[in-house]
Prior knowledge:
Layout: H1 13-21, H2 26-47, H3 50-67, H4 76-95, H5 103-113, H6 125-141, H7 144-154, H8 160-167, H9 171-191
Helix pairs in contact: 1-2, 2-3, 2-4, 3-4, 6-9, 8-9
Amino acid sequence: xxxxxxxxxxxxxxxxxxxxxxxxxxxxxxxxxxxxxxxxxxxxxxxxxxxxxxxxxxxxxxxxxxxxxxxxxxxxxxxxxxxxxxxxxxxxxxxxxxxxxxxxxxxxxxxxxxxxxxxxxxxxxxxxxxxxxxxxxxxxxxxxxxxxxxxxxxxxxxxxxxxxxxxxxxxxxxxxxxxxxxxxxxxxxxxxxxxx
Length: 196
C-alpha cells in the first residue's frame, strides 16, 4: 500500500495545537483545512447570511490564535465548534440589537433547555465535560437517523423543515423523533444523577 506523503496528510489535533503553542501561523492554515467546513456550517446555521458567516469564520480563526495558548483544548474539534457557535450568536445579537430575535433562531435551544442543565461556569469545566460525555454516550446509542436529527437541530440550529428535507422525511416525523429524543435524553441524564 502506498504511503501518503506527510504534506498531503491531514494533521492530528495534537499536531495542530502544538503549532499554536509554537506560535507557528501554519496552525491557522491547518485548522482551516481540517475544520473550515465545520466552522462555516455552524456560522451559517446561526447567521443565515453568507457574508456574515464568512466574517465569523475569520473571527473564529483569529480567536483560536488568541486563545491557544494558554488554553490547551482536550478536543480541538469541540473547542473550535463551541467557539464558532459563541461568536456566531454574538455576531447575530450585535446585528439584531434592539430587534426581537426570531423564534426560529432560538427555538432549537429552547426545545432542549428543559432537559439540559443550565450553562456551567468556566470553573465547572470538569462537570461540563462529564455532561458532554453523557450526551455523547446517549447519541452513540441512538440510531443513525436519530443522531443526525439531534445534531442538525441542536448543534447546527437547522430548522425542522431543513432536517426533513436533508433526511427525506416529513416534518411531523422529525418533530415526533425530537420529542422522543428529549424523553430518552432526560432519562439518560437522570440515570447519571443530573436533576432536571
